[in-house]
C-alpha cells in the first residue's frame, strides 16, 4: 500500500471511559476506493473507534490522520467538513423536508441572497442520485420514503458534501434481499469514485460481496487485518471475534414438545396480513420467516397485543383469549422482543435494574413501587443467569452494547415468567457470540416447557433454531415445514414464491 493510496489512518489510539477501557493502541487504515469491514462483538470497541474517527469523542492517546495529515476533530460537524461522514442506522434526515432539500441542505443552490432556488435544488439532487444509479422523486418528503430510500438519500447527501470517508453502520440490517443488492451496487460506484468506506456489519456473508479488507476488534484491541478473497477462512474470523472456537452458531437443543400453547385461526390485520392460522406448542421454537414487508412482523405484533386483529380467533392453552393490548397479552403469559429494542423494548435512560423489572411492577410491588432490595436481587440474578455485561446497578441501559441490551429485554420477560416469548429479529445487529448466548437462553426456555416464536428474515437462524417453520408471503401463510427435515433451498423457494 503506497502513501498515495492511504486515505485515513489511526495510530496508537486508546480510549477509556469510567470503569471501561474501550480501545488500546489501535492502528487502523483505510485506502482510497476500498471497502474495509470492521468486525467485532458488541462491546469490542467498534463504536468508540468510529466515534473517534468521526469527531464524536477524542482519543486519550494516539492520533488520527486524514490524507497523511494529523487531524483532531472538535465535533462531528468538523469531521464532516473534512470529508468524514457516518451513515447511522438512525438516519440524520429531516422528515418534513423533500428529498432534494435533504440532499443539498448544506450547500443549497441559491437564486439571490439567502433565497434557495427550488428548481436548481431538485436538479442538483437528481444529478447526485443519477451518479448513484438510482431514481427517487426529489420532490417527495423524506417521511414518506422506505428505509432503503432514506439510506440512499443519506448517502447522496454525504456525496453532496464531498465525502472522502464514508462510515456505514449495519447498513443492511433492515433491508430486503433486493434492497441489499441495490445498496451494494451503490457502494461499488462509490468505490470507483475513490471514496473509502468503513463498513460495520455482523453478516459475514457480506464480506465477499463488497469487501476488500477486514479488521477484527476484540476487547478494544486489533486481532488482525486480512485481505478478503474467496479463500478467507470465516471460521477463523469468528474465532478472532469471540476469543474462542464457536463450533455451532445455532446450538439448537431438543426439548419435550407438549400441549398447544397458542393457536390463531383465520386472524387478519389488513392490509398487512389476512386469514392466517398457526399454532405453537409448549417446549417449541416456531420460526416465522419471509421477506421484509411480507406481513410477518405485523403478525408478530398482533400475537403480542401491540395491535388487535381485525378478525379471527386466538386461544391460549386451549381457552379463548381476547388479546387486544400489550396488557392483555401479558395477562395471558405472552411477552415481546420487538424489532426495535431501543424504541419499543426498553426505556434506555433508566438503569438496567429498572428495565429488568419493568414488566413485573404489578407483581413485585405495590402501586408501581418495588422494594429496592428486591429489585437488586432480581438484577443480580439475571445478570448472572444471562451473562449480562454491565458495569454496575446505576448504569443507564443506553450505555450497554446491543447484545447486552437485548439480554436485558429478555430478562424483563423472564422476570415476568411469561410462557410464550414472541421475538422479532432478536439477533439483528448483534455479534456472533451474543447470538449464540441468546439462542441458548431460548433453549433453556423450551427445556422449561415455554415457547418461543422466532420471527426473522435471517433464514439460517430460522433453519438452525426452529422446530417448525411458517413462511409468510404476501400477507398469508405460504408454507409450513418441520424444521429438522426441511432444507434452505425449499424454504427460500417458498419465501420468494418460486414454487407452488
Topology:
Layout: E1 6-17, E2 20-31, E3 35-39, H1 46-53, E4 61-66, E5 69-71, H2 76-82, E6 84-87, H3 99-103, E7 110-112, E8 115-116, H4 118-131, H5 147-160, E9 165-169, H6 177-192, E10 196-200, H7 207-210, E11 213-218, E12 221-227, H8 234-242, E13 260-269, E14 273-281, E15 285-289, H9 296-303, E16 311-316, E17 319-320, H10 326-331, E18 334-337, H11 341-345, H12 352-356, H13 361-364, H14 372-386, H15 402-416, E19 420-424, H16 432-447, E20 451-455, H17 459-465, E21 468-473, E22 476-482, H18 488-496
Parallel strand pairs: 3-10, 3-11, 6-9, 9-10, 15-20, 15-21, 18-19, 19-20
Antiparallel strand pairs: 1-2, 1-4, 4-5, 7-8, 11-12, 13-14, 13-16, 16-17, 21-22
Helix pairs in contact: 14-15
Short description:
The protein has 500 residues and is an alpha/beta fold.
Care to describe what's here?
- With 500 residues, the chain is of the alpha/beta class.
- It has two domains: 3-242, P-loop containing nucleotide triphosphate hydrolases (Rossmann fold, 3-Layer(aba) Sandwich), CATH 3.40.50; 260-496, P-loop containing nucleotide triphosphate hydrolases (Rossmann fold, 3-Layer(aba) Sandwich), CATH 3.40.50.
- The chain has 18 helices and 22 strands.
- The strands form five sheets. Strands 6-9-10-3-11-12 form a six-stranded mixed sheet, with helices on both faces. A six-stranded mixed sheet has the order 18-19-20-15-21-22, with helices on both faces.
- It starts with 5 loop residues before the first strand and ends with a helix.
Amino acid at each position: 500500500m503506497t502513501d498515495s493510496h492511504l486515505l485515513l489512518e489511526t495510530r496508537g489510539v486508546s480510549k477509556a471511559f469510567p470503569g471501561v477501557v474501550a480501545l488500546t493502541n489501535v492502528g487502523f487504515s483505510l485506502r482510497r476506493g476500498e471497502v474495509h469491514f470492521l468486525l467485532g462483538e458488541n462491546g469490542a470497541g467498534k463504536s468508540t473507534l468510529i466515534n473517534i474517527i468521526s469527531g464524536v469523542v477524542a482519543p486519550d492517546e494516539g492520533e488520527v490522520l486524514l490524507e497523511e495529515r494529523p487531524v483532531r476533530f472538535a465535533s462531528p460537524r468538523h469531521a464532516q467538513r473534512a470529508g468524514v461522514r457516518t451513515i447511522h442506522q438512525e438516519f440524520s434526515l429531516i422528515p418534513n423536508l423533500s428529498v432534494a432539500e435533504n440532499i443539498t441542505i448544506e450547500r443549497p443552490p441559491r437564486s439571490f441572497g439567502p433565497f434557495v432556488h427550488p428548481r436548481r435544488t431538485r436538479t442538483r439532487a437528481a444529478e447526485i442520485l443519477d451518479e448513484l444509479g438510482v431514481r427517487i422523486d426529489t420532490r417527495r418528503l423524506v417521511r414518506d420514503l422506505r428505509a432503503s430510500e432514506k439510506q440512499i438519500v443519506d448517502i447522496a447527501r454525504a456525496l453532496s458534501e464531498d465525502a472522502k470517508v464514508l462510515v456505514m453502520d449495519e447498513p443492511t440490517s433492515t433491508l430486503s434481499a433486493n434492497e441489499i443488492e441495490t445498496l451494494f451496487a451503490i457502494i461499488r460506484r462509490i468505490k470507483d469514485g475513490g471514496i473509502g468506506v468503513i463498513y460495520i456489519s455482523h453478516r459475514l456473508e457480506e464480506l465477499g460481496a463488497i469487501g476488500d479488507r477486514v479488521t477484527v476488534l476484540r476487547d478494544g484491541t486489533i486481532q488482525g487485518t486480512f485481505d478478503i478473497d474467496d479463500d478467507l477462512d470465516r471460521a477463523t474470523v469468528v474465532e478472532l471475534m469471540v476469543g474462542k472456537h464457536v463450533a455451532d452458531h445455532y446450538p439448537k437443543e431438543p426439548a419435550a414438545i407438549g400441549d398447544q400453547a397458542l393457536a390463531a385461526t383465520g386472524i387478519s390485520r389488513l392490509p398487512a396480513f389476512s386469514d392466517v392460522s398457526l399454532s405453537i406448542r409448549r417446549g417449541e421454537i416456531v420460526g416465522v420467516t419471509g421477506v421484509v414487508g411480507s406481513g410477518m412482523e405485523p403478525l408478530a405484533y398482533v400475537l403480542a397485543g401491540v395491535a388487535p386483529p381485525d378478525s379471527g380467533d386466538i386461544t391460549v392453552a386451549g381457552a379463548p383469549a381476547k388479546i387486544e393490548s400489550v396488557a392483555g397479552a401479558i395477562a395471558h403469559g405472552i411477552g415481546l422482543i420487538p424489532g426495535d429494542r431501543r424504541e419499543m423494548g426498553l426505556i434506555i435512560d433508566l438503569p438496567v435494574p429498572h428495565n429488568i423489572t419493568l414488566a413485573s411492577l404489578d407483581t413485585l410491588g405495590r402501586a408501581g413501587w418495588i422494594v429496592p432490595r428486591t429489585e437488586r436481587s432480581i438484577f443480580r440474578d439475571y445478570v448472572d443467569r444471562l451473562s449480562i455485561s454491565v458495569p454496575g446497578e446505576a448504569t443507564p441501559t443506553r450505555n450497554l452494547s446491543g447484545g447486552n441490551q437485548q439480554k436485558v429485554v429478555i430478562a424483563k420477560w423472564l422476570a415476568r415468567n411469561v410462557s410464550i416469548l414472541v421475538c422479532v429479529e432478536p439477533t439483528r445487529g448483534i455479534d456472533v457470540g451474543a447470538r449464540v448466548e441468546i439462542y441458548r437462553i431460548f433453549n433453556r426456555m423450551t427445556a422449561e416447557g415455554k415457547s418461543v416464536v422466532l420471527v426473522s428474515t435471517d433464514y439460517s437462524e430460522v433453519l438452525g433454531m426452529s422446530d417448525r417453520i411458517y413462511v409468510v408471503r404476501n400477507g398469508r401463510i405460504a408454507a409450513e415445514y418441520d424444521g429438522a427435515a426441511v432444507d434452505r433451498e425449499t424454504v427460500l423457494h417458498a419465501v420468494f414464491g418460486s414454487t407452488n
